[in-house]
Amino acid sequence: MNYSIGDRIVYPMHGAGVITSIETREVMGEMKEYYFLELPYGSTVLMIPVDGLEANGVRDIIDQNEVPNVLEHFRTSCLECNSNWNKRQRENLERLKSGNIFDVIDVYKALYIRELDKNLSTGEKKMLTTARNILFSELMLSTGRTEEEVEELVNNAMGLDD
Question: Which of 33, 38, 70, 96 could serve as 50's disulfide partner, Cβ 3.0–4.6 Å?
Answer without folding.
Answer: 33
